[in-house]
Structures are given as structure tokens and as C-alpha cells.
TrEMBL record:
It catalyses: dCMP + ATP = dCDP + ADP; CMP + ATP = CDP + ADP. It is an enzyme of class 2 (transferase). It comes from the Bacteria. This is Cytidylate kinase. ATP binds at residues 7-15. Its main location: cytoplasm. Its EC number is 2.7.4.25.
Length: 228
């Protein structure tokens, strides 16, 4: 069973993919964390993210490991725990040119396919249904309006939860900055030459702007009797 979930930044893919994997006993594969790990390792080693050759070398040599514990999933790059370091604004800037690098994509796609060889995976990213697993059993393209996505990220960063209504405080300046970054990354991801972000022809499109987290999860689980 392979479930592919693609979509733009902040569409809720990560939490939805993680929950679908948890409920169905499948392995969760966060491919964005892989590109982020390459970007972080470049910055950490003084490699310019725009230096295509040097970045490709980092990607060919990198060892990425995922570990799941009660606190969620931890990511290690070359033995170093980078779980929080791959979420910084510096990495967010560097990850665009890194993920647009065809040599990096070639290495990451091969690693992702290897992770999916044994099946039973929920993989989320930008090119899962189009490139990594074109024969996936279930393909979802999850989107939401830029404003809804920025609002979710802003609430999340402030430690709140929109699903439960807990601690929902909105910092408008932060939300504006997040919106600008989302729009910039969407534009970069959708217009790059190597595997641009686009829905697979056979993907089920879900717009989560006005849906709750639970409704999105339920919609995906209903797509296949094997997930129900
Ligand atoms: O999903 P996340 O925001 O963590 O992804 C970080 C970046 O990695 C994206 O902005 C995109 O440029 C890149 N990415 C990609 N292909 C994937 C997953 C992520 O190009 N399959």
C-alpha cells in the first residue's frame, strides 16, 4: 500500500500524512525533511546553496535517518540530530535552490523509492504522485488558499491548535511574513524545471481551506477500502 500526498507548503500535508500513517499502521515518509536536511548540511558545512556541483556532492554523501518516538519523528543527517534546525528561516530560504537541483532530486528520489520498496508507506512532498511513486495506490493533492495556509502556520508557531481552538492567538506581522514566504516558495516550486509542483492527473484534489483536520483525514481514509 502506497499513499502519496502532495501539495504546497502549509497545506496541512504533514500532520494529515502522519495521522493517516498512524491510523493505518503505515510508515510515514517526510520527503520535505530530506531536502531540508541537504540544505541544512550545506549551510552547516559552508557550501553555497546555489553552487550546484558542491550541493550535489553533499546530497550524494548524506546519510539521512528518521526515528519515531513518543515525541514524534526525529531526523538525523550524518549522525547529527537536525530535527529543529531544518525548520529555521535560513534553511527555508536555502531549500528552494537545493530542491530545484536535478542532481539532488535524483539522489533523493532513489532514496525515497528504496524506502517505499517494502510498501506500506504514506509519503508526502511535491512530486510523490508524479515522479517518486507514479503507481501509488492512493494519490492526493492537498491544497488550501494561501491565506488559510499562512493562518495555520502562524497559529502553529504560536503554540496554538486551530483544530481544538486552543491558544489561538494570531500575530499579524508574523502571519504576513509567513504568507510572503509561502507565496515565494510556491512560486519557486511550481515554476522550477525539475519536477515542478503539480497534481498528478489521477490525484484526488482536496481543498482544505474550509475543512477541519479530521474532515481531511476522513476524506483520505475513505478513498480506499484498504485504508478504512
Ligand atoms: O514540505 P516541506 O515544506 O518540508 O518542503 C521543503 C521544501 O522542499 C519545499 O519548499 C520544496 O522546495 C522541497 N520539496 C521538494 N520535493 C518534495 C518535498 C519537498 O522539492 N518531494
Amino acid at each position: 500500500m502506497i499513499v502519496a500526498i502532495d501539495g504546497p507548503s502549509g497545506s496541512g500535508k504533514s500532520s494529515v500524512a502522519r495521522e493517516v500513517a498512524r491510523r493505518c499502521g503505515l510508515t510515514y515518509l517526510d520527503t520535505g525533511a530530506m531536502y531540508r536536511s541537504v540544505a541544512f548540511t550545506c549551510l552547516d558545512g559552508g557550501v553555497d546553496p546555489e553552487d550546484a556541483e558542491a550541493v550535489a556532492r553533499v546530497a550524494r554523501e548524506i546519510d539521512i535517518e528518521f526515528q519515531t518516538d513518543e515525541g514524534g519523528q526525529r531526523v538525523r543527517a550524518n549522525g547529527k540530530d537536525v530535527t529543529s534546525q531544518i525548520r529555521t528561516p535560513e534553511v527555508e530560504l536555502a531549500v528552494s535552490p537545493v530542491s530545484a537541483n536535478p542532481a539532488v532530486r535524483e539522489v533523493m528520489v532513489a532514496l525515497q523509492r528504496r524506502a517505499g520498496e517494502r510498501g506500506d508507506v504514506v509519503a508526502e512532498g511535491r512530486d510523490i504522485g508524479t515522479v517518486v511513486f507514479p503507481a501509488a495506490d492512493v494519490k492526493v493533492f492537498l491544497s488550501a488558499s494561501p491565506e488559510a495556509r499562512a493562518r495555520r502556520r502562524a497559529v502553529q508557531r504560536g503554540g496554538g491548535n486551530l483544530a481544538t481552538g486552543e491558544n489561538v492567538v494570531v500575530d499579524e506581522a508574523a502571519e504576513k511574513a509567513i504568507l510572503a514566504d509561502l507565496v515565494r516558495r510556491d512560486e519557486y516550486d511550481s515554476t522550477r524545471e525539475a519536477s515542478p509542483l503539480r497534481p498528478a492527473e489521477d490525484a484526488v484534489r482536496i481543498d482544505s481551506s474550509d475543512l477541519s483536520f479530521e474532515q481531511v483525514v476522513a476524506t483520505i481514509l475513505a478513498l480506499s477500502p484498504e485504508l478504512a
